[in-house]
Amino acid sequence: MNAVSIFKRDLLIAFRNRGELLNPLMFFLMVASLFPLAVSPDPKFLGLIAPGVIWVGALLATLLSLDLLFKSDYEDGSLEQMLLVPQPLMLLVLAKVLVHWLVAGLPLALMAPLLGLMLGLPEGGYQPLIISLLLGTPVLSLLGSIGAGLTVGLRKGGMLMPLLILPLYIPVLIFAASAVQSGVDGNSYSGHLAFIGAYLALAVVFAPLAASAALRITTAR
Amino acid sequence: MWQALTRLYHKLGSPKWFYQISGRCMPWFLIAGSGLMAVGIVWGLAFAPADYLQGNSFRIIYIHVPAAMLSQSAYIMMAVAGVVGLVWKIKMSFIVGKVIAPIGASVAIIALLTGAIWGKPTWGTYWVWDARLTSMLILLFLYFGVIAIHNAIESEEMANKAAAVLAIVGSINIPIIKYSVEWWNTLHQPATITLTKKPTMAPEMFIPLALTIIGFYCWFAFWVFARTRNEILLREHRTKWVKKLLTSKPANNNGAST
Question: B165 with B79: CB under 8 angstroms?
Fold first, then answer.
């Protein structure tokens, strides 16, 4: 069992449970459609809040899907086997996170333009929206793996995880939403994206480390 | 000198020694902290000159700034205690880390509340999404996370380690969050309200502030020691020395009655 085989296995499991993959996406769609109902259906106003709404929706949808990351493996015992395998746990975690991003983060990025259309996102916002989601959702998955690792054995982990992880998501949210906003305003947004990229680079290096430390702690009995 | 320090360090790793050493220096922190606070507060509230712009309302600075500084350094201390605990497997440092979390959170709340009270006369509103306020709020959220994980995990040892990991991750993120919030603020909001940037303060204003800051840290040390000692007694209540301590007279137990 190495990182590649875990990657293949997780991907296979994910596609065998296709129904579960759709849940975060439907959640994303529903959250975004609550805003026009709650705030105002005025397209001008919606266009103003669209970048933030879409990004908050993507963030919450990712948060919900993080439960998938380690939970089932923990329940059927295969997570403990992974901890015992003479392979760096970091790489195994990274493989799992990559799968999580492919099945949860990437679809969000691809679906976001549709929501942009529904919310009347102005023309210039689409490109930064997609790029920022492509760069930002892996960060969400990576940081989320720390929270998922810390709460994996807990019965009430579902409520705890947002508390632990949301503060760490704030930089991504700030820069992604402002990148989209600058795109809407017709300004350059590469600086914001560069910051998300830097955060991604940092998270790729450190998050698997922290997540594997967390897994070793929470699964020790 | 170095050897004495390392010996002290190793001694502090043992609950029994920690209990005795902290019992000896705890009163001094309380005395020093109270003295500094009394002088600083009286000086700051009664004798320091009023601010030329904000009048007397600025005087809340003598609570606000020490609380804000302390809440930030307490988080770092918690993370350092977590690193020490995870790397050298020292139980005591986990206890200290656990004890700091609620203290740091309460100090952060004090900072936010005094900030709101200060904001009302100065900016005309209790809350603005100013960069510093926002990052303080996020710091409070980070504390909440650490406290929540302590509450959620039943096994003491597991909770300590998990909270240590979270504290370390959070401390890496603190600078990132801080700068991103600052940039966000300059990106989004036109500068409708500028915090009166800490000017080169007049010494009559600054000295009492420095006194209250040091006083807050001394009180913090006292508080941490007191709570850590409680935690030690709770955890070690089966050991011989604690039983002996609790049954012996209060006179010869190194200040355990404080």
Answer: no
The residue among A163, A165, A166 with the most chain B CBs within 10 A of its CB, best to mutate, is A163
Cβ distance B170 to A167 less than 8 Å, yes or no, reads: yes
Q: Which of A167, A199, A218 sits opposite B142 (nearest CB)?
A: A167
Determine the Cα–Cα distance for residues A110 and A24; give it in Å rounded to an integer: 13
Q: What residue has token string 């700034």?
A: B65
Its pTM stands at 0.88
Q: What is the pLDDT of residues B113-161, one digit of tens each?
A: 998 888 888 778 888 887 778 888 999 999 999 999 998 888 888 899 9
Question: Which tokens hold the place of A109?
Answer: 């990025």
- Of A122, A103, A114, the C-alpha closest to A46 is A122
Ramachandran area for residue B6 (φ above 0: left; ψ -120 to 50: alpha; else beta): alpha
User: What is the complex's ipTM, to 2 decimals?
Assistant: 0.88
Reported in sequence order, the residue ranges of B119-231 that DSSP labels E, i.e. its strands, are none
* Binary contact (A160, B149; C-beta < 8 A): yes
- CB–CB of A141/A94 below 8 Å? no
Quick check: A70 contacting B, CB < 8 Å? no
The pair of structure tokens assigned to B247 is 């049954």
* CA-based nearest residue to B146, from B125, B132, B162: B162
Query: Is residue B255 within 8 Å of B35, Cβ to Cβ?
Result: no
- Of A177, A182, A183, A172, nearest to A141 (Cα)? A172
B192-246: per-residue pLDDT in tens?
444 454 545 677 778 888 899 999 999 999 999 999 999 998 888 888 888 888 7
d(CA B133, CA B30): 30
- B86 interaction partners in chain A (CB closer than 8 Å): 213
**pLDDT on residue B200:** 58
How many angstroms separate the Cα of A179 from the Cα of each of A28, A43, A45, A188, B90? 20, 21, 19, 8, 45
